[in-house]
Amino acid sequence: MSAMRHLLDLCKRRGFLFQSAEIHGGLRGAYDYGPLGVELKRNVSQEWWNSMVYQRSDVVGIDTAIITPPAVLKTSGHVDQFTDEMVDSRLSKERFRPDKAPALKLDDHHPQGLILPISAPDKITAKVWEHDIRTQFARGAAITRKGKEILLQVERMEKDKIVLKKDDRATITTLDPTDLHIPYHGYVDPNSNSPFLTESRPFNLMFKTYLDPIDPIDKVITTTLDAQKTPSTSDLTSTRQLVDKTLHPSLTYLRPETAQGVFINYATVQRSHPHLKIPFGIAQIGKSFRNEIRLEHAIFRTPEFEQMELEFFVAPWQAEEQFESWRKFRMDWWRYYGRNHDRIRERPHAQDELAHYSSGCVDVEYLFPWGWGEVEGIANRGDFDLSKHSEATGIKLQYTDAILMQERQAREKATGVKETDVEALARERFTPHVVESSCGLNRAMLALMLDAMEVVDERGKAIPFEGSEGDNNNTNTENTTVHVSKGVRTIMRLHPRLAPVKVGIMPLISNNKDLVEMCTGISQSLRQELQVNVSMETQSTTIGKRYYRMDEIGTPWCVTVDFESLQDRMVTIRERDTGEQRRVSVDEVVDLVRNGLRLVPRATQNKQQKTISV
Length: 614
Ligand code: GAP
Description:
It comes from Linnemannia exigua. By secondary structure, this protein is α+β, with helices and mostly antiparallel strands. The chain has a seven-stranded mixed beta sheet.
């Protein structure tokens, strides 16, 4: 079973993650988080908030609206530039991003010579596609079909085209030699290897919506019908312009990033919090929406997702240093919560990859089962955002260093000479630059689950997912597998602060009133004193099976109450990662869990006395 399949099965079975609206057939790219998923997601975002806001004196939080007026996103460049290139496969009608699509694969060991194989999903589709190729896309080409594979004979490859071999038996009289020249731009349909594609075109990723009690479709119909009545407006372009004009007053967007909500509030936050001196940051966690061309890998790429973003406002001359410092800070965060440090890396963006606003960017990438994928971007956005919003609104979004200004004014008063040093004045008042850290919460959760997931045999020895271990350059590990046989089980070695359930509490005999009562008391103390999620495990299975169920969802500690506990008030505490069990006083449990959950590095944690090691 592949690592991803294994995880998704576990997520569904144990209530982390479900396909949304499944009982109505589901909706592609939409996911619901179950009782454990919601806890894990909250814990990841809480840990982010702790380190970005509570642990620092220079960052404050904000929560801004999702529905965004066009002026904001026009100013930020999203209306004109937040696009991906999009291509349609002429055979499958699938839509994909050419920058993520693979190069053409050819078979040069075939008895018929150089072959371009196209894979259809089944034999019937292969027949239909073969017909389409013969009649529309490569008339007269030498083609054969084997099961669900269509084989095209290739004459030669040129820089930007594939020249197919002519079928000597073809009887088409109107054949143009260029019918056998297939344009090739370096990519094919990722699912079929087909080179029969539309030209690539830009596609804006933002979701539009209309704040209007009148259905916008009614307005479109009325405007279109009116436009058709006048010859000067009846062509497609003019009609479209009229429709856009009619809808514009009620047009809004679902925000594609939380960042813009911060930029438009820069001045209000700064005014309301005058103690915030540059450099300072504004953090936000919230939903963002993108009409992604390709949804992939469950919650890795979805149209609706959550972002954890920090916009850190700095003086222009601090930007480089702050960018480097945030890179390090964020990588340390990832290493603290992740177990496999060789599966997390930084990847600096090449110049042509940079977003329209960015003058420098590194991606934090995780080695997912299908290869390296971005989980976070750290960018030096320059003064792009504040300058643009300032230009568009006429409102100065600047920072004034009051101390420098007062000192200059005092000097001027004393000397009677006005100071004109441009550089010195620029240090007094400037448009801040922004260093951004932008992390996808859902992606972070997926990465941290995959990172924590370990399959072990009956002796507790880890069974690696084949192909995924130790190969850092591996980019095709989608099919990494592990054979799930008897005795094989899963342990989610999540950092205790991320674990959805912190303690599993179990009576030795599940229906014994006295044992259950003592368990309830322990559970209540933990809930009330530590405000953590605990689970009473009262199924009538063996304690061992109940421990394993807790391991599977990442519960760091289990507490078992047996008949002796009723006499001596001692309980068994078991640790997930070592399997170690020891007797402790029931009065110690809250302190042990409290200590085990502290925000200290794991290495230090292990050395502490009277703490639980994880
Ligand atoms: N404000 C900058 C910004 O939004 P981004 O690289 O487009 O930058 C930041 O997005 C992060 O948001 C990504 O690293 C990723 O973790 C997450 N993200 C972006 N699009 C996503 C999607 N469609 N589904 C899930 N997460 C997504």
